Amino acid sequence: MPETPNHQKSAAAAAAEEDDLVVNPWQVSAEGGKIDYDKLIDRFGCQRLEQSLVQRVERLTSLPAHVFLRRGVFFAHRDFNLILDAYERGEKFFLYTGRGPSSEALHLGHLVPFMFTKYLQDAFKVPLVIQLTDDEKCMWKNLTVEESKRLARENAKDIIACGFDITRTFIFSDFSYLGGAFYENVVRVEKCVTFNKAVGIFGFTGEDHIGKISFPPIQAVPSFSSSFPHLFSINDNLRCLIPCAIDQDPYFRMTRDVAPRLGYQKPALIESSFFPALQGETGKMSASDPNSAIYVTDSAKDISNKVKKYAFSGGQDSIDNHRKYGANLEVDIPVKYLGFFLEDDSELEHIRMEYGAGRMLTDEVKNCLIEVLTGLVERHRRARAQVTDEMVDAFMAVRPLPHMFD
Amino acid sequence: MPETPNHQKSAAAAAAEEDDLVVNPWQVSAEGGKIDYDKLIDRFGCQRLEQSLVQRVERLTSLPAHVFLRRGVFFAHRDFNLILDAYERGEKFFLYTGRGPSSEALHLGHLVPFMFTKYLQDAFKVPLVIQLTDDEKCMWKNLTVEESKRLARENAKDIIACGFDITRTFIFSDFSYLGGAFYENVVRVEKCVTFNKAVGIFGFTGEDHIGKISFPPIQAVPSFSSSFPHLFSINDNLRCLIPCAIDQDPYFRMTRDVAPRLGYQKPALIESSFFPALQGETGKMSASDPNSAIYVTDSAKDISNKVKKYAFSGGQDSIDNHRKYGANLEVDIPVKYLGFFLEDDSELEHIRMEYGAGRMLTDEVKNCLIEVLTGLVERHRRARAQVTDEMVDAFMAVRPLPHMFD
User: Fold this and answer.
1) What residues are paired with A173 via a beta bridge?
2) Hey, how many other C-beta atoms are within 10 angstroms of the C-beta on A142?
């Protein structure tokens, strides 16, 4: 079955034609700024993550589902049900996620997939590979090789600070790990993808350099367990589950198309929406505007200032009107952020009710958010301060993980 | 200075337009079958290897020039004079050559660059890196990864049998060596070459798979000494001299265009014409026709049969006519082969004189060639039988070569 069943033409071509919704690894934009995620599911040909699947996860893991799961932050999937079927049969699988290390400091949106991946690792007790695509960022962001490698290590510290279990986690950067069985799989994938096909998926042009065209197979192959001979036996051919933001879907659509031709399992995906900018839901945050996001390096004062000054409010323009009409929760960023990071369901529901009815004011909601974010960022800062260079080396060491399924 | 000074448009485009002379790494063809090497020098923008340069080599090395040099088998170059200038100043350089391991047995044409490279290594006492592009052959010939790797090791044995000095020679296959500093240079090169540029140089189409498009930088980067941190210091930035057949020129035209942008030395080239097929000079030999070439695995009887039966003769159709008009040396394959492998200049000149004047018959010349080739192939067979798997491992070990310039 092709990976884009609802469209004869490629996603990129269709997007270019309709010209309103563009979501790919390098561009996220929509008419009016708001992403229509239903349309995206339809266009990409992935599946909606229904509540019944969330309940099944809870049954299978005997744990409450992660906030990001029960509140629909991760809202789409490909074959996640097959992963659960396999898990239920006692079959093994592994997790794969990654990051393009293009900046020194991570913002909260960057943490979302890692917080969720840590939950999955703990809940299913499975090994995890984390790819740092320093080669990609060197090529796309025009960083030097040295700077990309430095950023990869810096970002690894933030990732490790999310609490991953070193006995189940292998972090690698492409510059440090590419070669051997991994490169053999890259070549196998390359043989299956024509330039025209890559153009259809990624929208490349003739003026793109050949590094960009060469990259997709490098993001594809960590989906295949044989790319990690120090972790998995060549005959394992394990299933892989990839938690990621939905803009990464094109890479794995390509991967899933190719996998059966190589005798490999198609990777399964569990895909998130985008973490909104402080200024409102217009796709992803902009790295060029530090006031569009809360960074893990922001001080308590920074956080307070940014939330008070920039967080787009759905509250009314006067207290009288607010008391009368209530806040518009659909556009209110403080409520959306609380939806990500305020874990207590009843407290969140209380805020939504009171604020939506106008009994709670914007300032009160913003203060609540400031408290939540300050706590989160402070905990992250403390955890990151504990991460030494030796720990980075240890997570990135090419080594077996003998207890990764225990 | 661009690398193709005599043409505004790309070599591939020009070739397609004129439609008579096509020489690139995958295709060698010409109208009427005979390559016009003067036209090729003009089109590629390389330089003719003049006799004065050959004499300079003899002066600098205090050795007679190799037969392939003094008889014009290596007939073109790029900046070979700059290598000699550097050598004269006492500066170091290194040699780089390679082979695409697409077949089990090598034929005599395959040996030509290695025999010549061995002479250069001995004459200049310099280190040598030999690239086995098993990844390329896996992609272009649709071999499996495993088969390509096996052929690389088999071919390495034939290469080692040519007599390379293990204290100065590093042999590597892309599947075994790619990664680290080598891959960093691949990414640096990729960033400098757009798809359109690659199309101009190599003639790719949209239906080519992206592995083909990704490959040229992998053949480019052994030109840079920093790709071999176990051999050279990162700051050495040594000059590189590449002996190869002229069909490889497009790779190194690209490399020379890119090198200055990366702060690297442009590699110099010394380029050979093609070893002719037994059936006559129509470009390169065909792997699909075993009777078009003498293989290093051929028995004395095979060699005798092939030369007698298939070697195109410039002799006349009757003994009377032959005595009257003499042989046409321009098309005679036995004389051409003797020009490669009969080392004694006076003996060769004698044959040319007598045969050209009709005093010597085709059979006599063919018998002479059979004797020369049988000796050559027998020596090669004996040498190859001595090459163990352990020796292949030793040549391919990633190791320093402390005495490589001694």
Assistant:
1) A132
2) 10
Query: Residue ranges per domain, chain B?
Result: 34-275, 300-386
Residues 6+ apart with CB under 8 A from A398: A170, A172, A177, A230
Query: Strands A74-78, A268-272: parallel, antiparallel or unpaired by DSSP?
Result: antiparallel
Cβ-defined contact of A211 to B191 (cutoff 8 Å)? yes
CA distance linking residue A218 with residue A227, whole number of Å = 11
Chain A nearest-CA distance from B398, in A, is: 14
Q: Is the domain covering B300-386 a CATH 1.20.1250.20 domain? A: no
Query: What is the distance between the alpha carbons of residues A300 and A189, in angstroms, rounded to a whole number?
Result: 47
Topology at the third CATH level for domain A34-275: Rossmann fold (3.40.50)
Residues B42 and B53: beta-carbon distance below 8 Å: no
Task: Output the CA–CA distances (angstroms, integers) from residue B98 to A251, B58, B152, B179, in the order listed.
Answer: 34, 25, 11, 18
ipTM of the complex: 0.93
Smallest CA–CA distance, residue A402 to chain B, in Å, is 26
Q: Which residues have a Cβ under 8 Å from the Cβ of B192 and sit 6 or more positions away? A: A209, B257, B258, B261, B262
Q: Could you read off the pLDDT of A259-280 as tens digits, one per residue? A: 999 999 999 999 999 999 999 8
d(CA A271, CA A244): 5
Cα distance between residue A112 and residue B140, in whole Å: 42
How far is the C-alpha of A39 from the C-alpha of A57, rounded, in Å?
26
* pLDDT band, very low/low/confident/very high, at B282 (cuts 50, 70, 90): low
A176, A187, A254: best mutation site toward chain B, by most B Cβ within 10 Å?
A: A187
**Residues paired with residue B170 on neighbouring β-strands, in sequence order:** B129
pLDDT band at residue B285 under the 50/70/90 scheme? low
Neighbours of B204 (CB within 10 A): 20
Give CA–CA dist A220/A187, Å, rounded: 11
Q: Rounded CA gap, B322 and B318, in Å?
A: 6
3-state secondary structure of B141: coil
- Provide residues of B within 8 Å CB-CB of chain A: 135, 138-139, 142, 145, 174-180, 183-184, 187-188, 190-196, 198-199, 204-211, 213-214, 216-217
Helix (H) or strand (E) holding B107: none
Query: Is residue A340 within 8 Å of residue A285, measured between CB atoms?
Result: no
Spans in chain A with pLDDT lower than 50: 1, 5-11, 14-17, 283
